Structure formats: C-alpha cells, structure tokens
Amino acid sequence: MYYQETLRPQIHFTPKENWINDPNGLVYYEGEYHLFYQRNPNGNKHADMHWGHAVSTDLYHWKELGTALEPDQLGTIFSGSAVVDKHNTSGLFKEETGGLVAIFTHDNHGEQQQSIAYSEDKGRTWVKYEGNPVIPNTTIKDFRDPKVAWHADSKQWVMVLACGDHIQFFGSPNLIDWTHLSSFGKEYPSDGGVWECPDLIHLPVEGTDQKEWVLIVSINPGGPNGGSAVYYFTGSFDGKEFHPNEAATDPLKWADEGRDFYAAVTWDNTDDTYWIGWMNNWDYANDVPVSPWRSAMSLVRKISLQPDGGNYLLKQEPVIVSEPVQVRSESSLTIKPGEKAAYDVTLPGTIDIQLSQPAKQWGFQLVSDQGEVFKLEINQTNNSYTFYRTEGQQDFSDKFASEITGSLNGLDIQKITAIFDHCSFELFANDGVVVSTNLMYPSGAITAVELYTEEAEVEVEQLSMNELPTIWK
Ligand code: FRU
User: Fold this and answer.
1) Is the CB of 38 under 6 A from ligand 1?
2) Quick check: is 22 catalytic?
3) CA separation, residue 39 to residues 44, 56, 60, 71, 296 (Å)
4) Are 163 and 140 in contact (CB under 8 A)?
5) Residue 321: which H helix or E strand, with range?
6) Catalytic residue among 22, 107, 256, 268
7) Which of 84, 137, 257, 359 would you call most buried, defined as having the most Cβ atoms within 10 angstroms of its Cβ?
8) Centre of ligand 1 from the C-alpha of residue 174, in Å
9) In this structure, is the dihedral angle defined by the CA atoms of residues 170, 280, 435 and 58, taken in order, positive or negative?
10) What mean pLDDT do residues 214-218 have?
11) Tell me: the pLDDT tens digits for 337-373?
12) What is the Å distance from ligand 1's center to 214 Cα?
C-alpha cells in the first residue's frame, strides 16, 4: 500500500478511503496492537457507523483490515473498548484460554445502550452476544462510549461510561452482568458541551515508584480553542468511586490545547500506557478538504505523569519507530531579532530545538511554496504559545482559521519537538508536558522552516531536523 495523494498523511494512520472518527477497542493481544475505529464504509461524512480495524506490531506502522463490527437490529456501532478476557470470566469462549471481548454502544437514532461482542480469531471476526444489550437504555440521552479495564484491587471489570454531563462507573464479574457503582462530575460545569469517550487509567509518576489514577474525558463543544478537546482529572479510585485530587487548586486540565486531538483513549493489556486520538474537531470534521479518506489519527503517545506542585501534569511522548534521515544538525546558533534562520524542509519530518536558556518571545514558521505561513510562537512572559492557522486552505469552514493558544503550564520552555505531516502539526514542548495538535491545509508543499525571535537574541544549543520515511511502504 503506497498512498500518494496530496495532503495524504504519511506517518499517521488513515484509512484507504472514506470517513473515520474515534479510535475504539484499543487492545494489545498476542503480538498485535489493535486499532478499531469509527468508520462509515460507504461515504466520507459521519453516518452509518461501523467499527473498522487496523493492526500494528510497533504502534507506528499500520495494516488496515476492513470492517470488524456492522450495524444490526439494535442500531449502529458507536465508540467503545476491547479487553482480553484471559480467564474466560465471560464464559463466551470454548477454550479456557479466553479471547477478545469488545464493549460498545449500540445507537438507535439517539437511543443508546451498551453491548458486547467476542472474537476467537484475534479480532478478525466477531460474534455479537445474543443477550445484548448488557446495559439497556435508561432515560439518559447521551449514554455511551464504554471503556472497560480489569481493576485488580476490587477483582472486577470496571466500566467508565459518558452520560451527557457526568460519568457513571459500572462493575462486573463477567463483562455481561453490570452493576452501577457511582457517578462523578455533575458539579463540573460543561457549558453545554457533552462528555464523551472517557477512560480511567493508573499512570506512573515520573521519578517515583508511585502511580496515580487519571480520569480522561472528551468534551464537545467546550474545548479551550473551540469545539472538541480532551481533559483529565487526577485523583483516586477505590473500585467504586473516583475522587479528584484535593491538593490540586484546579483538578481539571487540558491534555492537548490544540484544535485537533479528540476522543483519545488508551490501549488495554500493555505494560507502559499508550494512547491515540482522532486528529480532528467536530467543528469542521465533515468538511476538511481531503479525499478519498477523511480524517487521520494522531501519532500514538506514551503517557505518564510529571509532579507539578500538589498536582500532576500529563506527559506525552510520541512513538516514532523508523530510521529518520537527519537533514540538519547544528549547535550553538544565535538568532537575532529581525533575522530569520531559514532551512529547507521536506515533509513528513521533525524539528528538535534545544535552547541554552528560556527565551521571551520566539518560535518558528513553516512556509509553503505558495508563500503560506504557519507560525508557532512561544511567549514565555505570558506563559502561553500561539499557533497561527490563519493561512492555507480554510474556506471549507468558517470555524477552521484560528489563532490557537495554549498554556505553557508555568514551565520554562527550553526544548521543543514538532512533528509535521502533510496536513498536521504536533507540538511537544519540554518532553511532552505541553502538547498541541493541529491540522493545517497548505495549498502547496511546505518547503522551509524559519526560526525567529521578537525582542532578544535566542541561543539555540542544538537544532536538528529529520525527514521521516512513509509508514505505508
Ligand atoms: C465522539 C463520538 C462518540 C460516539 C461516536 C459516534 O467523537 O461522538 O461519543 O460514540 O463519536 O461516532
């Protein structure tokens, strides 16, 4: 498979054709990482949801396999998760070796219930449980996106479910019979946004042997730059209830303040924790100017926590498994106000910048052969960054052109990694504690990167630029 269309991502997962949205059913099993996803096999708009399927052995190169779950008399197949039922707790498997169980939402014109299916052949074919739904509809309108994991301390499967303006937790011994455990989050204003695609994970704290619970929630609309975005709470989970960290002045933090990182959830059954998001935003997803596919996933990121006063910051490190071709490496570079350090660039690729010390107001811009500029500015004085997505193709939606701002989380920024693909920009500052994912649609090829500074000289200790080979060969 070799994709050559203009704007086709070369290091991000896309389907050969048609619409996709949320990652679903992320699970590692017998040597393969599974990526299921929301898919419309017949068109390039959100409709008629199925689960598509891709597999990887390294979380970077993907093989698309086709449809895994199809709509039935209970409805279309919305988002959900998958687990390895190692000990056949469900009794659904012939062998005592168990297999894969998918837990998903059946959507029947807005009526939503939770169902399961099982697979005995590594996710290639699925049988829906004959007693579906396993959690029937209640009076709640938005009642979806079950994420399930085994909770060792309470010896049960725990499900996190998005319910409009709050989360509900359910417990089960067998993935079939579910009991309501608790509800969380009604006290947090959602400003008209709907909570979606939650996840509950136990993450290691860097530099310690401690782990903390993190509740992930996607919200749409209500993102910091408009539309869809992902936030998280750190806290505790006792097998019944989640309590946000009391030491934190604000227990709610954005995982990625860019415009295009949504519905992110983690892989089940891995040692380290990895997640992936849908690289788009419901504000304009149905209209982005790409075809015959529509939408890509973000890069996979390994996640952990970094202590931050009484609270923690989510740290995200992109997984890139390929032999990069180094096109530039420079040390001890001085950039002066009014001057630009310009370098040729070929996408996809990365730029790594290490400063000798934090600088006030500086950054770099990508320039296309049509003269379009996409600029990143770090403003240390204001504790913020801005990505200017105000050029390139944007007339497909009046919500697309934006100056996207985010917080530097009070950190002195000294190190930046940015990853460019043909229509995306992912920023990871200070090893991934400030992250911003954004689509961009240049109308020509990006050919240059220009470093600049506004007020004072900037000392770049090390600059390196790499080209990345396509993942599709
Ligand atoms: C999130 C979402 C989910 C839902 C799915 C439908 O992007 O709205 O809540 O299950 O997409 O495709």
Assistant:
1) yes
2) yes
3) 9, 18, 20, 11, 12
4) yes
5) none
6) 22
7) 257
8) 26
9) positive
10) 98
11) 999 999 999 999 999 999 999 999 999 999 999 999 9
12) 21
Nearest to 85 by CA among 268, 322, 291: 268
Q: Cα dihedral sign for 22, 192, 201, 419?
A: positive
Ligand 1 centroid to 218 CA: how many Å?
10
Instruction: Report yes or no: 428 and 325 within 8 Å, Cβ to Cβ.
Output: no
- For residue 372, CA distances in Å to 67, 217, 375, 390 come to 39, 35, 10, 9
The answer to whether 251 and 245 are in contact (CB under 8 A) is yes
Question: In 3-state terms, what secondary structure has residue 286?
Answer: helix
Predicted pLDDT of residue 192? 82
Nearest C-alpha to atom 12 of ligand 1 is from which residue? 78
Q: Supply 80's token pair.
A: 């959900």
Ligand 1 geometric centre to CA of 79 (Å) = 6
pLDDT tens for each residue of 111-128: 999 999 999 999 999 999
In this structure, of 44-48, 59-63, 137-141, the range with the lowest mean pLDDT score is: 137-141
- Does residue 458's CB lie within 6 angstroms of at least one atom of ligand 1? no
Q: Cα–Cα distance between 276 and 268 in angstroms, integer?
A: 12
pLDDT value of position 189: 79
Q: Which two tokens stand for residue 113?
A: 């219930």
Distance CA(170)–CA(177), nearest Å, equals 10
As a three-state string, the secondary structure of 418-454 is EEEECCEEEEEECCCCEEEEEECCCCCCEEEEEEEEC
Please state the atom number of ligand 1 nearest to the C-alpha of residue 80.
Answer: 10
- Closest C-alpha residue for ligand 1 atom 9: 196
* Nearest residue to 269 (alpha-carbon basis) of 92, 89, 29: 29
All structural domains of the chain, each given as residue ranges with its CATH number in brackets, are 18-318 (2.115.10.20), 325-467 (2.60.120.560)
Amino acid (1-letter code) at residue 88: N
| Contact 351 CB / ligand 1 (< 6 Å) | no
How does strand 50-56 pair with strand 63-69?
A: antiparallel
Q: Which residues pair with 181 in a beta bridge?
A: none
- Is 158 strand, coil or helix? strand
